[in-house]
Design a protein that fits this description.
Blueprint (H helix, E strand, L loop, with lengths): L1 E7 L6 E4 L5 H6 L9 E8 L2 E4 L4 E7 L10 E13 L2 E11 L1 E2 L3 E2 L15 E8 L2 E11 L7 E6 L8 E9 L12 E11 L10 E6 L1
Parallel strand pairs: 1-15, 5-7, 8-14, 9-12, 13-15
Antiparallel strand pairs: 1-2, 3-4, 3-6, 4-5, 6-7, 10-11, 11-14, 12-13
């Protein structure tokens, strides 16, 4: 599988295809290069254990950060690896964690809510495929001190997608909180987001095209 993304430039609003081919089959099969300290990985909490996107099981036996991480579903964690307890299984000291915003993709031909189809600008700092998810770190411009909720969705282009190339568009609805050339009090807010696509993509050899403004 290969991953391609396209970006709409905010100035010219012309769609530019940025071709970045990543072997998703190889990526999804790679194991964590586990280190003893300051290990950072993304995955899911299952029955009190943390399962990384690479299939490694982490049992939390110590914790130096506050909060109850095992009440979350998907998260990114930092930890110290204390000992290996089995094949791809480790005891860890949890040193930090952050919840991952997770949302199912929607289909362009069945979506009913107009709010979902708004395409305000955003910036994608990182993007990768692992664990059956399209994972991103997204920056959105927000007014300093604002409490307004922004809406993020991944919409599949049902009309133009094929079994060889699935086309998705990242949608951002700022609900009017859109930066202009005259604005000086905006900041960039960042967040991790994961979209599960394992049940959407059929076949091992296919291409994903991601577009956004």
């Amino acid at each position: 599988m290969h991953l391609v993304w396209a970006k709409n430039q905010n100035i010219s609003m012309q769609r530019i295809l940025i071709s970045l081919l990543i072997s998703l089959c190889l990526l999804s099969c790679q194991k964590d290069e586990t280190i003893r300290y300051n290990n950072v990985t993304m995955g899911n909490f299952v029955d009190g254990k943390f399962i990384s996107d690479q299939g490694i099981t982490y049992d939390i036996v110590e914790q130096t950060c506050s909060g109850m991480a095992d009440t979350l579903d998907r998260a990114i964690i930092s930890c110290d690896v204390l000992s290996k307890t089995g094949d791809d299984r480790y005891d860890i000291r949890l040193t930090g964690f952050d919840e991952i915003f997770t949302k199912l993709p929607v289909d362009s031909t069945t979506v009913k809510e107009a709010d979902i189809l708004v395409e305000n600008p955003l910036s994608v700092g990182e993007i990768w495929y692992a664990g059956g998810y399209i994972n991103m770190f997204i920056y959105i411009p927000i007014k300093e001190g604002s409490t307004r909720t922004h809406l993020i969705n991944l919409v599949r282009d049902d009309m133009n997608s094929t079994s060889e190339n699935y086309i998705f568009t990242l949608k951002h609805n700022a609900f009017g909180e859109v930066i202009t050339a005259e604005d000086t009090d905006f900041i960039l807010g960042g967040t991790y987001v994961s979209f599960p696509i394992a049940n959407v993509i059929k076949g091992d050899k296919t291409q994903l095209t991601l577009c956004w403004t």
